[in-house]
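Archive entry. Fields below.
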Amino acid sequence: MDFDALLLARLQFAFTVGFHIIFPSFTIGLASYLAVLEGLWLATGREHFKNLYLFWVKIFALSFGMGVVSGVVMSYQFGTNWSVFSAQAGSVIGPLLAYEVLTAFFLEASFLGVMLFGWKRVGPGLHFFSTCMVAIGTLMSAFWILAANSWMQTPAGFTFAPDGTMVATDFWEVVFNPSQPSRFAHMVLAAYLTTAMVVAGASAYTLLKGRALTEGRTALRMAILMMAIVAPLQVLVGHESGLVAHAHQPAKIAAMEGWWEDRQSQPSILFAWPDEAAETNHFELAAPDTSSFLFDTPPTETLRGLKSFPEEDRPPVAIVFWSFRVMVGIGLIMVALGLWGAFVWATGRLDGASLYFRALVLAGPSGFIAVLAGWIAAEVGRQPYVVYGVLRTADAVSPVAAGTVAASLLFFLIVYAVVFTAGALYILRLMAAGPESDEPAPRSKQPPGTPLGAALKEA
Amino acid sequence: MFGIELALIWAVLIAVAVFLYVALDGFDLGVGILFPFAKDARERDQMQAAIAPVWDGNETWLVLGGGGLFAAFPKAYAALMPALYIPIILMLLALIFRGVAFEFRHQGRATGKRWWTIAFSGGSLVATAAQGLVLGGFVQGVALDKGAFAGGPFDWLTPFSLLVAASLVAGYALLGAAWLVYKTQGALFDRARRWVMQLSVIVAVAMAGVSLATLGIDPRVTARWGVSMTSIDWPVFLQLAPLPLVAAGLCFFLWRGAETRNHLLPYGLSVALFAVGYLGLAISLWPYIVPFAMTPGEAAAADNALALMLWGALPMLPIILAYTAYVYWLFRAKVGDDAAYH
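PREDICTED_STRUCTURE:
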């Protein structure tokens, strides 16, 4: 296989899976949020929960549709572009994907129909049940796909058959491989946070515009609650996931941290420009000797640097190093926004906190960037292997000509650009309009968000 | 021995999944193909409303077909997907357009709605044609070397695969028209009945053409049916002759039966017609999962993988079929004139 076809196949997979993950990371959280909203509406009978449900379900339908069609692509790309991987690892990883279809995809797709079109045909209890089934389906789907991906990161419970293909020796070990529990938790929390940031941003926007105040205030409080609890929790889970990677994928951790030398005590690097040719960092800004604290290692244990791995076994350093920092940076911003929100809420100043609202609008899409950066760090960090330490990416690619892959990549770029632009436009349009509300339209022509404008609307 | 049986069970299960895909997503793709023949935007809204609650579940059978082939027969999946690379990618891209169009048509304003209407219809047509090219490319066999694809990027493009693609478009359109007879009323219902009558003739011709062309694909197919261009081996052919006769009968009833009072009957007859064609194809290709190169036993995943999946599929498939049936029952009513979105 020539180099170009390999690179193109990798670009195509990275692009299609990167495009795809945007939607599940939103709809996993949004499905659970919708279930909570409908449950609260049924329990309290308060109309603004229903208004919020009807608003977010439209955005859910758009996002879920884009997630479905980009997901169907993924189930065929293993074969079209990575046929050697499929043939080699199919007996181990295939059942996990089959279980995803059987336990999650049909559940989501069937009950989505009831959720979107069944209002007049089923009672509220059954409609709520359908929403819950969709929400459970999204979580089960995440479980299986994270099991499959984590097995590629930390393969376990398998051996080689006489024909050279991989076969499972223990499917329990395959599914619950070393990195699966922490990475599944990390992804679900990431999805919940992504949704919380979008809900917070959209609610803050309509509040600034002085529309649907009851709905906006309720949604904003729910989002702040989620942020304040889940963002700090995510830091701990992410750290746990890092410890697992440290134990099983030391080269990935060395690239994430930007460590080149073997040392008993490594620095925590805040900023640097990793130079793979010179095997060093430029412009390094670091807190020295903090690694034993972060990784909880005894001071006598050596922490491996990249130089101790043969060059052909190292992942691309700069991409992993920087995408990891983007993810962590955004995570810390979310923690700060959660604490800020909790503080103004606790001190009773939340409804007029226009500076905070503006910050939330700005941070609305931050979850998507963090999810993408995190996945880039995880997947590029796994290189040069597709199954870590077992099967190299270069040996896994399909026997398809570079020109064919290049042409299909071009078409994917065009089609996804059109679909994404239109989808984003329609979603933003819905968000700008905000939820339907029973309250009278605002009378004020005052600029939104000013104390006077807010006071006039209250009147 | 147990392993070969497991592989056979999975071959049957995947064949059933693919057939369910064809029978179900076939009608909603067919409705998209018929979009340009609708009278106005209101009729198109009704046509889309007749499939909107169920299309997503229908398409999931395609994921089960692809994912199931990967999981149960990784070697067949690894051999076929690179060989059929271009039509597969074409199908996926077309499915993207028509999938998002369900929601986007309702969100777009005037220009947007017009564009997504074209995307829905064009996407349905191209996805169907691409599936026909995949089927044609599959039936005529792929060039393999030690189990890996060893041919060119356009090997699938032959007069045979083009004939299959055109026939599948007609076939899905028939399923779509028959579904509309079941789901609509008034002027659209009358139009759908005419479509069924016209398409039953076209599909009859197309099926005869594909059947004859398939006989020329490989000597093994010719021998199985006992029919070649120059002679007929009557004892062999007579055993299988009921199949084309039943197909001809079904086409006749579809042509006549579009007048019937039972509005679900045309769809039932269309599915039966597809079942006969599917069975004929299975007889032609038996026992290969990659035609004339790989049997299920040769392509199968490890026994423990097949067994584990069977333990999952045995309880899950009936549950899936049950709630799928429930959703269909829930949305059994005919689409009204006020076909509106959720």
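CURATOR_NOTE: The radius of gyration of chain B is 20 Å.
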